[in-house]
Amino acid sequence: MKKIIAILLALVLVLSFAGCGAKEDNKLVMATNAAFPPYEYKADDGSFAGIDVEIAGLIAEELGLELEIVDIDFGAIVAGVQTGKYDIGMAGLTVTDERKESVNFTTSYAKGIQSVIVKADSEYASFEDFYTEFDADGNPVGVKEGIKIGVQQDTTGDIYSSDEPANWGFGEANVERYKTGADAVEALKSGKVTAVIIDNEPAKSFVAANEGLKILDGSYAEEDYAIAVNKADTELLEKINAALKKLTENGEIAKIIEKYIPSK
Fold first, then answer.
1. Tens of pLDDT along 27-63?
2. Which member of 6, 50, 134, 192 has the lowest number of beta carbons within 10 Å of its beta carbon?
3. Is residue 52 domain-shared with residue 103, that is, in the same domain?
4. Residue 112: what pLDDT?
5. Are residues 50 and 33 part of one domain?
6. How far apart are CA 125 and CA 217, in angstroms?
7. What is the CATH number of the domain that holds 197?
8. Same domain, 128 and 210
9. pLDDT per residue over 214-225, tens digit each?
């Protein structure tokens, strides 16, 4: 009887580990938030499009898997990957120490810039103008009265903006969070916020689509984009990194980025 129980336990262990790193359903499930052009968005025909979508498609191809994309709230992506609900998260995700506590990140495949959108007739020439004064080291010590920053909730724009002025944030009380970047832009247009802080490429798309807005000169922050992977699935992480290396070296990733963000 003990031998039978031991065999059964061993079988259970084998079965439980069989899916670790091996994709039995032959799918690579990607969680994203398709409201972040040109990285991910819905095309006119309802299909997913964008830089992350095309790169994920090539990665899936390299891994011999079928890509399945799930559109969810941005703030739920990391948690969904952490719990194993999704295989990967790609949504212009910036690598941060806080997120690294929940998931692993691949090597970076693109760089992002946080930009500041204001109304075209804004009195502010740069985001530094949102502060009252600076200390001897050049760091801000206070925010001007009435300044309200609109952000997409849980993005790095949210994280940075919500920090204290000493860390170039504006403080929790001066930040308004919205479900999407588009909602934040609508708040800017209606005068509910002074500015919107969001990644540069989506910022350019929003300004192009909405008359009377502009992007301030300079960048609010610079960061690396990478793919989130469950911490337990180191095999998948290694395979994706190998695919990214190949796609970088053969120029495929650069070609995709150039398609959506022309250098000329």
1. 999 999 998 889 999 999 999 999 999 999 999 999 9
2. 6
3. yes
4. 86
5. yes
6. 8
7. 3.40.190.10
8. yes
9. 999 999 999 999
The whole model's pTM is what?
A: 0.73
Same domain? For 101 and 121 the reply is no
pLDDT, mean of residues 88-114 = 94
Q: What is the 3-state secondary structure (H, E, C) of the chain?
A: CHHHHHHHHHHHHHHHHHCCCCCCCCEEEEEECCEECCCEEECCCCCEECHHHHHHHHHHHHCCCEEEEEECCHHHHHHHHHCCCCCEECCCCECCHHHHCCCEECCCCEEEEEEEEEECCCCCCCHHHHECCECCCCCECCECCCCCEEEECCCHHHHHHHCCHHHCCCCHHHEEEECCHHHHHHHHHCCCCCEEEEEHHHHHHHHHHCCCEEECCCCCEEEEECCEECCCCHHHHHHHHHHHHHHHHCCHHHHHHHHHCCCC
Tokens of 47: 């299909």
**What tokens does 219 get?**
């960048």
- Mean pLDDT value across residues 154-174: 94
Other C-beta atoms closer than 10 Å to the C-beta of 100 total 14
Residue 55 lies in a domain: yes
Q: Are residues 169 and 130 in the same domain?
A: yes
